[in-house]
Amino acid sequence: MARFRVALIDDHEIVARGFADLFSTIPEIHVVATVATVSELLAAPAQAEGIDLVILDLRLSDDSTVTSNVDRLRATDAAVLAFTAGDDALLMRAAARSGVLGVVRKSEPTVVLLDAVRRAAVGETIASTEWAAALDGDPDLADAALSPRERQVLSLYAAGAKAPLVASQTGLSELTVIDYIRRVRSKYERVGRPANTKIDLYKRALEDGILPIPGQP
Question: Where does the source fall among the domains of life (predicted)?
Answer without folding.
Answer: Bacteria
